[in-house]
Amino acid sequence: MILNRLKRTACAAGALCLTGLVALAAHAANPDALWQIVSQKCVPAAETGAGQNACAYVDMRGGYALLKDINGVAQYLLIPTRRVSGIESPALLDADAPNYWPDAWHARSYVEQKLDVPLRRDEVGLAINSASGRTQNQLHIHIDCMRPDVADALAAQRGTLDAAWRTLPVALEGHRYRARVIDEATLERDDPFKALAADIASRGEAMGDQTLLVTGTTLADGQPGFIVLNDRVDGLDRASSEELLDHDCTIARRH
Prior knowledge:
Elements: H1 2-5, H2 14-26, H3 33-48, E1 57-59, E2 64-68, E3 76-80, H4 100-106, H5 108-115, E4 124-128, E5 141-146, H6 148-157, E6 166-167, E7 178-183, H7 184-189, H8 192-201, E8 210-218, E9 224-232, E10 245-246
Signal peptide: 1-28
EC number: 3.6.1.26
Subcellular location: Cell membrane
């Protein structure tokens, strides 16, 4: 199980997490900062079995690292351990490309641990921004709390959604997102990157202009599932679904 692989490692000591945060802050204006932290600090430490690691967790077999972001009280980033520029990378569509989304979803336990509060499925979101809506040129999935108003808006629309893409009748942060619902097995089996690429191919759109967000929900039959959101670059809309996350995690106060 993926969850069993998420062992609590480096961040057990607060000073180790601070190492990663300081490094990220020092390179805040550097678009390769995340890649440099993962490739030059996290992976070498994991390979040598060093007692300290700038990342919270490194899964060499799964090909990703988890890093506490300097932004937010509990935000983590899932970052591939190989060079992958972002959502536009053709490598994500390779037949043997890792599906990072299930690992990112299970990594929400790190957010909960940081908050010391259990979160409901619909209170957690995974987001990746478009090529023009990001600051870092290494793929990274944001793992954080959902904005309370967005979580409530999606809950209100849940009964109208199914497996087909539909434009939401309400704007989220002023933008018109498309949404669809999938179950847990679908997230494990069908990589959202590949599913989106297949859908937009007929629309003549580019992957680099897309943004994706995955948040938990409960399906009509009571089973756990997900709402997948998609937006694309359009004028002043830079397609950054990170805007639907709340890096202050105010939704945790509901508990």
